[in-house]
Amino acid sequence: MKTEKIITPFNGYLAFVILLITAALIVFGFTSNNNLLSIVLLPIFILLLKGLIVIRPNNSKVLLLFGEYKGSVKLNGLFWINPLYNTTSLSLRARNFESEKIKVNDKMGNPIIISVILVWKVEDTFKSIFEVDNYEDFIRIQTDSAVRKLAGSFPYDHFEDERATVTLSTNFDDVNKALEREVTERLEMAGIEVVESRIGYLAYAPEIAHSMLRRQQASAVVAARHKIVEGAVGMVESALKLLADKQIIEFDEDRKAAMVSNLIVVLCGDSETKPVINTGTLNQ
User: Fold this and answer.
1) How far apart are CA 50 and CA 55, in angstroms?
2) DSSP one-letter code for 67
3) 109 close to 161: Cβ distance less than 8 angstroms
4) Close Cβ partners of 53 (under 8 Å, ≥ 6 residues apart)
5) For the segment 116-164, what is each residue's pLDDT rounded down to a tens digit?
6) Containing H/E element for 249?
7) CA-closest candidate to residue 114, choices 153, 157, 144
8) How far, in Å, are 52, 149, 166, 175, 188 from residue 182 at the CA level?
9) For residue 9, which of 89, 67, 71 has the smallest C-alpha distance?
10) Which CATH code fits 95-209?
């Protein structure tokens, strides 16, 4: 398999000077009735003119001679090449590609919607032109394929797989690095350099989004309740210990149980507490 060959063509400015001299001699020949000189120099003038090429910054020219690859020019400026060469222009600028939002299944089988943003540029002009049919279509199809593989490699979050160390929705750096490696491997044969690759959009599919939101909310409520109960138990323990240390009042087991019950209700309740006046004894 051939690889890219970088060539340095002839200086175009010098060729342009020779072109002007040739043009002047042709005009001189016609004006001085020396037609033979003009006829001889005219094909040279045409070849010199046809061989001039201009390459803008971050652009390149791929050179072919009767279907055979001769090399690539990545310099910018005015150059002269063999006028028999066929040239193909190729941009070397960095370009963005945002994939379509596609529905795929994550590692746990949940349908999700995902898209990626890819920053890429042509690195090997030979591979981009001759190894694939259309490198831009190749990038689009291979990126979609890499996204599908990535989504199936990780769960969406920790709710489905609590033992997972990397998830799509939390470990963005790790996921983006995995995506970049996968896309780079796929696009290497097309001579494409992946500058950056990251997830642009990520969400549950509409048919399960509401259920997953309710599940997350329920988990958050349970976690919050756990913290509230844990704090309330600590406060009750501190209150009983403080009363006992200062000997303010002595409680038997029944009164301790009643106090603990009342404090837990007050501290863990959602609504505001409403005082109740006891008009009887403490035992009532």
Assistant:
1) 15
2) T
3) no
4) 9, 12, 61, 73, 78, 79, 80, 81, 87
5) 999 999 999 999 999 998 999 999 999 999 999 988 888 887 665 567 6
6) none
7) 144
8) 41, 9, 16, 11, 10
9) 71
10) 3.30.479.30
Task: List, for residues 187-245, the tens digit of each pLDDT value.
Answer: 999 999 999 999 888 888 877 656 666 666 656 666 666 677 777 677 777 777 776 67
Give the three-state DSSP class for 223.
helix
Whether residue 57 contacts residue 76, with contact meaning beta carbons closer than 8 Å, is answered with yes
Question: In one letter, which amino acid is 46?
Answer: I
Tell the residue number behind the tokens 């199809």, with chain if given.
141
Name, in order, each residue with C-beta under 8 angstroms of 78's C-beta and a sequence gap of 6 or more.
12, 13, 16, 52, 53, 54
Rounded to 5°, angle at Cα 139 from 138 and 140: 90
**Quick one: which of 73, 180, 184, 193 has its CA closest to 124?**
193
Measured CA to CA, the distance from residue 125 to residue 216 in angstroms comes to 49
**CA–CA gap between residue 273 and residue 143 (Å, rounded):** 59
Torsion, CA 224, CA 226, CA 232, CA 236, rounded to 10: 180
Q: Within 10 Å of residue 79's Cβ, how many Cβ atoms?
A: 21
Determine which helix (DSSP H) or strand (DSSP E) holds 75, and give its type and residue range.
Answer: none
